[in-house]
Amino acid sequence: MYRRVTNQWSKFVRQYLNAKFKHFKSNEKPISFKSLISNPRRNKQLGLAVGGSVVFYCANLDAAPVTGRTRFLWLPRSVELLVGGYSYQSKLQETDKYLLSPIHPVTLRVSNLFMKVVEAARADPQVDHSLLDDIDWKIHVVNDPLAPPNAFVMPGGKVFVFSSILGICKNDDGLAAVLAHELAHQLARHSAEQISKSIIYLGLEGVLYAVTGMRIFNNMLVNMILKLPASREMETEADHIGLMIMSRACFNPDEAVRLWERMSDFEKQYKSGSVRLEFLSTHPHSTRRIKDISKNLLKAHELYSQSNCAIINGHYSKFQNFFNANSRF
Fold it and tell me: Residue limits of the Peptidase M48 domain (predicted)?
């Protein structure tokens, strides 16, 4: 998902900070709290650094679309697109031999569904429409029999859908739920948010290491207390935004709940019943996602009704029947 884009950036930042903190060697003693507060020059530098960081943080607070969640977001859109383009080329090389033709019935089906979702997002007054303008959309279906179910949208409009997820989606409404969720990550600029926060995470890890001398434990602490909860929060937000978009696009919002019920069954079947602890995961547990989505169904059905979906779906069913009849997946 959006983490695929941030991995490259985080790796670069981590290498940079490691170079900056290279004087903190494993055989050196950690900096004591007493030494930190007893040095006037260091106190002044620390005060300026903290004060500047607070000002920078507050100046770059941003409200997420639809949910209104306040988050730290400083990364320019141009950099986000640059990192997304690099990740796209990397993923394209990785999946090239498994890609279905752009005119394959399955690719056409996914493309039509996705563009319908995009148009619904464009009609949402809470969405930043500039994120949808001048985008070179490219939809790829990856027919790799060994790949796990997956789908994601990269910054810049590059979409990957793995054929293994189509069976779990079961129908167009289920697939629309997946596509709307992935588009929601980009509309909320979760990739940029994750990259923005990575500076804080890596900086905090460096400070903790300077004080305690324990790198692995500190990294685990930051991961469990900050990184993973933030990731789960963004996933929940994408579920919310995606639910509203798919409803506005005249897809049955109830199918979003059924999708995660099927996903939960899949996880139980192919993970041999292993228990996944939510606080150690980047994603909320499927049962929690079902509960959270269910809470928003009333609003989703209101949007569905306001969009004259009965008339629209009557016309769309002709195309749906054609693609279903010509698809072998």
Answer: 136-295
Provide DSSP, 232-263. HHHHHHHHHHHHHHHHHTT--THHHHHHHHHH
Query: Which of these ranges, 2-11, 87-96, 98-107, 163-172, has the smallest mean pLDDT?
Result: 2-11
Concerning whether 182 is annotated as a catalytic residue, the answer is yes
Residue in this structure with the two tokens 């170079």, named with its chain if needed: 19
Question: What is the chain's mean pLDDT, rounded?
Answer: 85
3-class secondary-structure state, position 175: helix
Dist CA 70 CA 175 (whole Å):
29
How far apart are the C-alpha atoms of 169 and 245, rounded to whole Å?
17
Is 83 within 8 Å of 194 (Cβ atoms)?
no
Catalytic member of 28, 80, 94, 182: 182
Averaged pLDDT, 46-65: 89
Nearest-angstrom CA–CA distance, 228 and 223: 6
